[in-house]
From TrEMBL:
Pfam families: AP_endonuc_2 (PF01261)
Native organism taxonomy: Bacteria, Pseudomonadati, Pseudomonadota, Gammaproteobacteria, Vibrionales
InterPro entries registered for this protein in UniProt: Sugar_Epim/Isomerase, Xyl_isomerase-like_sf, Xyl_isomerase-like_TIM-brl
Keywords: Isomerase
Domain Xylose isomerase-like TIM barrel residue range list: 1-165
GO molecular function terms attached to this record: L-ribulose-5-phosphate 3-epimerase activity
GO BP term, example: L-ascorbic acid metabolic process
Species whose genome carries this gene: Vibrio ezurae NBRC 102218
Name of this protein: Xylose isomerase-like TIM barrel domain-containing protein
Amino acid sequence: MAYKLGIRTIQLAGYDVYYEPANQQTHDRFIEGMKLCAQLAERSGVMLAVEIMDTDYLNSLSKFEVLNREINSPFFSAYPDVGNISGWNYDIVTELKLSKPHITQIHLKDTYKVTPNYQGQFRDLVIGEGEVNFTAIFNTLRDTECYVPLVIEMWANDDNWRENIIFAQHRLNEACRQAQLPWLFELKPDTCLKAIFR
């Protein structure tokens, strides 16, 4: 179906299970399913991109590289969520450099990190309010010449969603400026000021 529709990349969730406990059997089924999906993708020339998730099953590109060797397909790639990687206390620069040849697309999301006394926060944050170092991310993408689509991931849980998007765009533009990259978004000065001083 993806081939017929002209869809070139399919995003997959990097979970074996989510709502029930994981075990060796759920892991084995995940591997079996990914291998089958990769074979189907190869036949159609469609890239599979597995997202680096917010649970410890597949929360880093280091773990993706282990999985990638097991799946062993040129049509199986990584879709890192930088918020999830950072939130689990992995060094985002090292991780991006490690998997650069296998990255198809990137989620830009902000998070709070997991600590011994805190489970972290992996959603419902506006970009710029969390702990993700977007300047370091953009520096790494520039230095490694990693040119892939970037997607903002945020949630609209209140009436300020429009201002939140503008605020996030401004913060990402500022990170681009610090990394000596062109802005990602064209913003009107008056909307930026409203978002910054909200």
